Prior knowledge:
Rossmann fold; two-stranded parallel sheet; single chain; 4 strands; globular; mainly alpha; 11 helices
Amino acid sequence: MKSLISHQARVLNFNFMEAQKYTRYKLNEQQQKRFVQMLIENSKMPTLFERHIYFINFIHHKQIQPLYINLLRNPLERVISDYYYSRYMCTVKKETCFRMKRAYINETLDDCVMRNEHQPHVCISLEHGVHSAIAFFCGQSSYCEGYKTAQRALAKAKSNIVKYYILVGVTEQLFKTFSVMEKVLPQFFSNIKKTYLRRKKKRVWVTPKEYRIEPSNRTREVIYKALKYERDLYKYVKRRLQQQFDEITSTKESNKIRA
């Protein structure tokens, strides 16, 4: 995706900023303030900034709120991928261990679920190297990451999406996502579908197969149930995306009829 956006930036003449740090999602108040100031100072022209970070309310820091966009992946596939990617980055790449406890690094997801039979949600928590998708939309408050406060975090995440996110796409519906991108932010994403087809490349940030152990069907079922609130968010985002897509296609049909 970064390669695709870099191409768009060159063609459409906007500023594309890539973060140098990707592993610190949660910031304290001072870090948020510095982050907001940095972004404002470097956005004198139309700018698209890309980073993995929990939602920050710029208005809280007395600045104009930027438009947020994001992509969401199927929750079950995301957490399985996250589980092994965090271990790969820690033990093989030796770049970061995120906030994972070292005692769990060599544990497979199957073993974790067996060990935590009565509380499987533990296996998809920060201490096991898995981040909550809800927290990225909920924000920097402590309750955004907690399992016991997940329902509250989900409500806040949905509220933020409505207020601040012009688009939340779905990786399993990429062309539908691109269609909405082209419509709502043409200055950044005009013709992105054609560009994607022309420049289609393999994903760069992917865990090699030898470092990913596919979980059993039983583990997948257990984790699926534990992802109740993540699945709720995913369905909500898919419905919203569909509504945006339907509005675009109905407008196109209406224009054809008038013509």
